[in-house]
Amino acid sequence: MAKTAAEKGKKGGYDASSISVLEGLEPVRKRPGMYIGTTGPDGLHHLIWEIFDNSRDEAMGGHANRIEVTLLPDNYIRVVDNGRGIPVDKHKQSGVSALETILCTLHAGGKFGGDESGYKVSGGLHGVGSSVVNALSTHMIAEVHRDGGYHMQEYSIGKPKYAVKKVGKSDFHGTIITFQADPTIFSEINYDYKRIVNHLRQQAYLVKALRITVIDAREISEKELDNLDLKGNFYIGDLGVEAPSMTFYFEQGLRSLVAFNNQHQKAIHRNIFYTERLEPAPNVYSVEIALQYVDDITPRLSAFANNIFNPEQGTHVTGFKTALTRTLNNYARKNGHLKEKDEAFTGDDVLEGLTAVVSVKMPEIQFEGQTKAKLGSMEARGAVESVFSDTFSNFLEENPDDAKAIVNKVIIAVKARKAAKAAKDSVLRKGALEGMSLPGKLADCQSKSAAESELFIVEGDSAGGSAKMGRDRRTQAVLPLRGKILNVERARIDKMLASEQIKNLVVALGTAIGDVFDESRLRYHKLIIATDADVDGAHIRTLLLTLFFRHFRPLIDSGYIYIAQPPLYKIQKGKEAHYAYTDAEKFALVGEESTEEEMEPEAATDGTEDSNEEVATTKKAPKVRIQRYKGLGEMNAEELWETTMNPANRVLKQVNVDDAEEADRVFDTLMGTDVANRKSFIQSNARLANVDV
Fold first, then answer.
1. Packing angle between helix 660-671 and helix 675-685, nearest 10 degrees?
2. Which of 492, 574, 579, 596 is positioned for an S-S bond with 622, CB 3.0–4.6 A?
3. What's the pLDDT at 618?
4. How far apart are CA 628 and CA 532, in angstroms?
């Protein structure tokens, strides 16, 4: 089979002179968090991203078109690309091979050179990635296929075991990096296959026509592994190995990503807008944007800079939003949709129901902070604004049906905004922010310090009564809910505030909502959802989480949202009382086979108990009484305090969002209008649910 240009490789002046050396490697093991953020699961997976990013940068430069990431036994990770191959000739500055220089020296790589030989844009840790992974690995193997030769070097904790050696001839071009993370550095070595798949799928969207394969070969036997001819074959996926695998290849790039994000949404216009422009030297930046409006009220905007996801967006998104608002206003005025001179779409109007992806690639990129969550490069704003204004204006003119649908969607948003304004003003501006009386259902705490105050959002008046009686009145407030609140997934703020339950909660929080939301006015720094351990309780909890995720997301990000974990059982052994939060804990206390269920409603001399209780007796042991709590309302004030509200004893789960995009899709699925998709999701995940029937 004839090799592609990427497989044959392109030298392009890429040799040892392309590599710059800045400093040594030793600090990495002393302070790994400075380089990978954390030594927990995020940092562990970051090792894969750093090695992958080097291969992806080869693809971004047009030198590779295929990458394979394989999870191997003994916690080894193998990353393969068919790029040019890391240079192996002697590096003048370091005195050793360029390969050893890159993998053993901090800030050494092809990302610092100012000539045509290095990378024009890159997404790695500015050249520290490979060396950091090496420093934090007990074992690393580098294999380079280049210029007709097959070269190798091994390392232990960042130090080479031997000089780079040529071990044979090769018709391939590319690099293979295999590493084993150091268990003395990381709290646990446990790679999440699904997490890796999701990350690399995203990367495949961002580099058009790049084929990325992920293989989970951790269960492969040692004999099978030994039989693999890895020296003669680049890709494990080509060897017929039976292991879970996923391959991603998207010819249309960001258009495919927008279509994926909208797969369970109803699009309001047929054509997905797409533009890509590469500016020539001396700017050398790329702007790529895709968007489509859907029949929804929630905007979904993803931002990337040099293929790094920016959850806090940045200057490129600012430029995009400015151009989007201006372009739609200009088009609407030109075509008579906006008739009054002072009438105009706002930024919020044009974002409603928008799914968009903004990606920029540029040299000398600047982020705000170490996490790269927000792009700070000012030139990105002007670049995106200019490119998008021109191309989106042309799209609207050339696709009048799509343009009409988009403008009509925005006009509906304008009308809804005006209708909601009165509700927000009356309930919020004159309400929680200006001393409106707190809801009557709320039993507030005495403390005025938000840092020590807690709000229990409790299901039902019965549980609310027990909670109010059992609480610490100084720091604990209680707000009981009456049944299930409104599903806010597709509800506008005016409809939400027409719901007495949601209005009471918003006023109690003190932050307001929507464009007047102010986190600094939050009255409690612990918001604790306390619902029954049954299907209805789980539904109410999901409705509340939907409300917080869609309209109070900063409170989740700040760590203010918690879920209470009340016990399932009260176990009375003679005069001693114990609480069990799981069946396993119950069995540990009384023994699985020593209990039998009785049916009488009241305790009596014949040993019968309530239908939610079990009784176990032996000749010598005291009677064991087991009460099964079906709801918080079955607990008296003392029991609820002791098990669920007392900070010394209670168990709370803090709510966080590790993957906002995945969470967004799950809420769409569970709380949206696509019944078939929700049914499919529930059927697919039913085995993972812990349902108390």
1. 110
2. 574
3. 47
4. 12
Strongest mean pLDDT among 127-141, 209-223, 366-380, 391-405: 391-405
Shared domain for 332 and 300, answered yes or no, is yes
Tokens for 480? 């009981």
> For 530-577, what is each residue's pLDDT tens digit?
988 777 888 888 889 989 988 899 999 999 999 999 988 888 887 888
419 strand-pairing partners: none
Residues 266 and 347 in one domain: yes
Q: How many CB atoms lie within 10 A of CB 500?
A: 13
Please give the model's pTM, rounded to 2 decimal places: 0.68
Total of domains in the chain: 4
CB within 8 Å of 140: residues ≥ 6 apart: 103, 133, 134, 154, 155, 156, 177, 178, 179, 180
For residue 282, is the peptide bond before it cis, meaning its omega torsion is within 30 degrees of 0?
A: yes
| More confident of the two residues 675 and 92 | 92
Do 454 and 583 reside in the same domain of the chain?
no
Question: Contact at 8 Å (CB) between 433 and 518?
Answer: yes
Range of the domain at 516: 432-565+653-660
Pure H helices in 299-377: 315-334, 347-351
Q: How many whole angstroms separate alpha carbon 8 and alpha carbon 15?
A: 16
Measured between alpha carbons, how far is residue 52 from residues 125, 474, 511 in Å?
12, 53, 42
Whether 532 is a known active-site residue: answer yes
Q: Is 606 a catalytic residue?
A: no
What number of other Cβ atoms are within 10 A of residue 137's Cβ?
Answer: 24
pLDDT of amino acid 663: 62
What is the residue-averaged pLDDT of the chain? 83
CATH of the domain at 83: 3.30.565.10
Residue tagged active-site, from 536, 557, 610, 664: 536
pLDDT per residue as tens digits for the range 606-615: 333 444 555 5
pLDDT higher than threshold 70 for residue 331 = yes
Separation CA 593–CA 51 (nearest Å): 53
Which one from 452, 472, 534, 664 is the annotated catalytic residue? 534
- Partnered with residue 356 across adjacent β-strands are 291, 301
Catalytic pick from 352, 532, 609, 639? 532
The tokens describing 396, both together, are 């609207």
- Higher-confidence position of 603 and 270: 270
Q: How far is CA 201 from CA 44, 307, 671, in A?
A: 19, 12, 25
665 within a domain of the structure (yes/no): no
* Helix (H), strand (E) at residue 400: helix 400-424
Active-site residue flag, 642: no
Known active-site residue 583:
no
Same-domain pairing of 406 and 496: no
Question: What CATH number is given to the structural domain containing 328?
Answer: 3.30.230.10
> How far apart, in whole angstroms, are the C-alpha atoms of residue 285 and residue 365?
10
Instruction: Show which of 410, 441, 459 is a domain's final residue.
Output: 410
How far is 312 from 334, CA to CA, in rounded Å? 34
Amino acid identity, position 191: Y
At 120-144, the pLDDT tens digits run 555 543 345 889 999 999 999 999 9
Q: 3-state secondary structure string, 33-88?
A: HHHHCCCCHHHHHHHHHHHHHHHHHHHHCCCCCEEEEEEEHHHEEEEEECCCCCCC
How large is the angle between the packed helices 193-206 and 254-261, nearest 10 degrees?
130
CA dihedral 165, 117, 380, 331 (to 10 degrees): -120
Q: Which of 50, 68, 454, 459 is catalytic?
A: 459
Cα–Cα distances in angstroms (integers) from residue 670 to residues 26, 395, 667, in the given order = 49, 34, 5
SS3 per residue for 478-509? EEEECCCCCCCCCCCHHHHHCCHHHHHHHHHH
